[in-house]
UniProtKB/TrEMBL annotation:
This is GNB5 protein. WD repeats lie at residues 26-67. Keywords: Repeat, WD repeat. InterPro entries: G-protein_beta_1-5, WD40/YVTN_repeat-like_dom_sf, WD40_repeat_CS, WD40_repeat_dom_sf, WD40_rpt. One of its GO terms (biological process) is signal transduction. The keyword Repeat applies.
Length: 92
């Protein structure tokens, strides 16, 4: 979002739980976050940003695993290739 973060929320929770406490911020870019997608597992997230980069993040630790550079301006979208390995993506 415009706060430069990707937030992950659980879909199942107790009604008495504080939803904000369950939120996990995973990605931190230097400009707005324009797109995000889980990889084939729920352990990694791929993000695109107005800082001109895409990045792969570990959901549990929030650590940056790999950064992808090459756009000369904002990256507005991304999509993963439908494969078992999930090792190819497109961004624009």
């Amino acid at each position: 979002g415009l706060d430069n973060k990707c937030s992950v929320y659980p879909l199942t929770f107790d009604k008495n739980e504080n939803m904000a406490a369950k939120k996990k911020s995973v990605a931190m870019h230097t400009n707005y976050l324009s797109a995000c997608s889980f990889t084939n597992s729920d352990m990694q997230i791929l993000t695109a940003s107005g800082d001109g980069t895409c990045a792969l993040w570990d959901v549990e630790s929030g650590q940056l695993l790999q950064s992808f550079h090459g756009h000369g301006a904002d990256v507005l979208c991304l999509d993963l290739a439908p494969s078992e390995t999930g090792n190819t993506f497109v961004s624009g």
